[in-house]
Structure formats: structure tokens, C-alpha cells
């Protein structure tokens, strides 16, 4: 439930920025990574308030935030061209008429 509420909140915020920067891929990548930072901070704060974790900023940044950002950046770089190519291919099939 915690991630579900956070994802919905940040997807709505991302949607606003994606409408503004939909052609600037650098900004879109930056927004995705920034949203990842915010969701991680959101989850850590909620878990800390509930007493499930002891929040230490240095440990959070070193062992949770940096590895998450690196992995998300790598996956974004790898999967973005693949997904873009797939959507272009699907779009061409939808747009073309067959006699």
C-alpha cells in the first residue's frame, strides 16, 4: 500500500512535467531519476515514522539511494532505445493500411 500510494502520487506529478518536456529526453530522464529519489525518501520517512527503520542519512544515501539511482540510470539507458523501437514498430503497423 505504501508504494502504491507513492507511485500514484509521483506518476501524477510526472504526468504534469512530461506534458511540458515531452520532446526533451534529457529532462525526461532527469524527471524519472528525480522521482526515484523522491519515492525512496518518501518510503524511508514513512518507515521511520512508523518505527520500522532507524533513519540515518549517510547510510540511506550510501546504501539505498545511490545504488537505486545507478541501477535505474543503467536500466533507463538500456531499455529506452528498445522500448522506443518497439513503440515505433507498433505505431507503424497501426498507421499503415493493408490493401
Q: Could you explain how this protein is built, in words?
A:
The chain is mostly helical. It has three helices and no strands. The chain has helices spanning 2-20, 25-50, 57-95. Helix 1 (2-20) runs antiparallel to helix 2 and helix 2 (25-50) crosses helix 3. The longest helix has 39 residues, at 57-95. The protein is elongated and about 60 Å long. The termini are far apart. 0% of the residues are buried. The mean pLDDT is 85.
Largest sheet, in brief, is:
none
Report the uncertain regions.
Answer: none
Helix % is over 70%
The total of beta strands comes to 0
Quaternary structure type = single chain
- What's the rounded overall pLDDT mean? 85
SSE arrangement, N to C: HHH
How far apart are the termini? 50 Å
* Structural class designation: mainly alpha
Strand content: under 5%
Number of helices: 3
The gross shape turns out to be: elongated
Radius of gyration computed on alpha carbons: 18 Å
